[in-house]
Amino acid sequence: MKLLVVGGAGYIGSHTVRQLRAAGHGVVVLDNLSSGHAEALPDDVELVRADLLDYPSVKAALEAHKPDAVIHFAALIEVGESMRAPARYYRNNVVGSLNLLQAIVDTRKVPLVFSSTAAVYGTTDAVPIPEDAAMQPESVYGETKLMTERMIHAFHTAHGLPYTILRYFNVCGAAPSGDIGEAHPSQSHLIELACMTALGQREKMMIFGEDYDTPDGTCIRDYVHVQDLADAHVLAVEALNAGKTDAVTYNVGLGHGFSVKQVLDAVDAVVGTPLDREIAPRRAGDPPRLVADATKIVQELGFAPQFTDLQEIVQTAWNWHKGHPHGFEK
Ligand code: UDP
Q: How far is the C-alpha of 264 from the C-alpha of 286, rounded, in Å?
């Protein structure tokens, strides 16, 4: 197949591009490079530098490259920032996605795989969370992903657009080769922050709340390795293109979780020295447990995560950060 990967120069996008190439597919990336990195792409992958808000460029890319399917990752993803700058998030994530949908139906009406998030569920009592759990996003970021999911479904109903939506849980780790990884302008995620702390770029780790109703009192999350998530996209786009699936939504996670303390213990073991830790107040909006019910993607697409050992997951993140302490910057 030939895929147009929108947002393919970002963290999850670049790992997916790798796995698509490894599976023998052709790839063209469309990215505005606002947070992505051209260096994260293989040399034989063409990069179209364009913004989803520029409809003519998006349409022109579809007409020029004639992909068999589109995978859409391009989005702003910082929860806190989305609360401070909602217009930017609605415009970029919702209007940008609307332009992409319009361009697809105006040109080739090819299948779409969309990158969504467990943030669409918000705080839920369901443990683990199935795909049909209530959706009440608590951030503008989560809201923009849910709105895009609904637009995609409306385009399916009105125009027959085939789609698969993947809702990710806590994505982490890096390609075992250590040459691509998470390089966001602002780091907010637990494993990434712990690696930065181990590199001496931060003083210590804060544990946000030790009084949750969990075995060790800290929050539990479902940490899915970015390469396994990338493989989920390969499975999803192949099944969609073969007509085996349509209009389906899958959670992507391991189906079990690790606590903040378990993650920090794994980082200590991998790095070889314990990081300073401090117990801090709970972070607003953090549910005690967020774990995927991933049964559907396992049964229907044969999703079989390779990275289930927490230390191994952390090791891949550490290899990347140690080798690239400033991300892709020299
Ligand atoms: N967390 C923490 N200290 C940090 C960063 C995160 O204790 O410096 C906790 C956070 O409160 C949550 C878990 O780690 O319970 C995962 O947070 P992250 O931001 O990585 O992902 P989220 O689940 O918010 O998407």
A: 18
Give 74's contacts (C-beta < 8 A, 6+ positions apart). Answer: 6, 7, 10, 13, 30, 31, 32, 52, 96, 100
ipTM: 0.98
Strands 248-252 and 163-168 turn out to be parallel
Specify the CATH class of 2-171+224-252 in words: alpha beta
Say whether pLDDT at 135 is over 90: yes
- 141 is a catalytic site residue: yes
Instruction: State pTM to two decimals.
Output: 0.97
Q: Strand pairing of 220-221 and 163-168?
A: unpaired
Fold agreement between 2-171+224-252 and 173-222+255-323? no
Residues having CB within 6 Å of any atom of ligand 1: 170, 188-190, 193, 205-208, 219, 221, 260, 283, 286
Distance 170 CA to ligand 1 centre (A): 9
| Domain regions of the chain by residue span | 2-171+224-252, 173-222+255-323
Q: What's the confidence (pLDDT) of residue 54? A: 98
With a cut of 70, say whether residue 73 has pLDDT above it.
yes
Residues in the chain: 330
Q: 329: pLDDT confidence band, cut at 50, 70 and 90?
A: confident
- pLDDT one-digit tens code per residue, 222-259: 999 999 999 999 999 999 999 999 999 999 999 999 99
The active-site residue, picked from 141, 163, 223, 250, is 141
Is residue 145 within 8 Å of 75, Cβ to Cβ? yes
Candidates 3.40.50.2000, 3.90.25.10, 3.60.15.10, 3.40.630.10; CATH matching 173-222+255-323 = 3.90.25.10
